[in-house]
Amino acid sequence: MDLVAQGQFTVVKQPLGFIKILQWIFAIFAFSTCGSYSGMFKMSVECKNRSESDLGIEVEFEYPFRLHQVYFDAPTCRGGNPERLFLVGDYSSSAEFFVTIGVFSFLYSMAALSVYCFILEKYRENNKGAQIDFVVTAVFAFMWLVSSCAWAKGLSDVKTATDPEKVITLISACDEPENRCREVYDPKVSGLNTSVAFGFINLILWVGNLWFVFKETGWMGAFAGTYVPSQEKQPAPDSFGQAGYGQQDPYAGSQGGYQPDYGQQGGYNEDGGYSQGYEQQPTSYSNQM
User: Which family does it belong to (predicted)?
Assistant: First the structure.
């Protein structure tokens, strides 16, 4: 309760925290729609000898889509036991990679939200937390791009491998013109299509989040520092100007010529220079009077 009381939940109203909530939610949608999928399709094989026909062949498949391990039994229409056939393809790598990125994104988003709410000061201290957050966010953005594209291609292959019209071609009895083979029920893959959409939505969210995290890193100020330090050094010309004024006095005196000479009149007075002549002028004038 103390943590809840001390939490700075206003950060969730800011883009930095609000987008993390969206990432957390859409990560759940992405890995759950893919990882929890199970589908089924039906076919029928009607043999010339109706007693050997099978009008309801069901084939079930699910995540992680190791279709080469999925099998079904189909009649041969020649008497005897049915033949066992396997689907084609193993698409577990792209599916599991997609789900793994979704799970880790969910965990990281939840951890980042906790940091924002409870230890935001340490997060912003020396910008270290924000810089780490930026690097991790960039990595996840790249991983969402790769995993979403890979899973989109994998899903396309899964649809092809589970198309009843394609699977029927594996049944030897369907090569005979007197036998009739057809699809009864197509698999519903709308949930898998949604998972791909959620993957690209996560990509957009993580790429967009880079800007808000970047603003917390302080790197923007470092880039602008090429101009800021010049502002900070502006007092230096003032001090230089003050020193310059000090140096300009003798220079100005050298232009005027009088002030430096008056400053040195003490020496002339002692030596009987120009000051003495100036003092004697009133005497000579009184003598003339």
Answer: Belongs to the synaptophysin/synaptobrevin family.
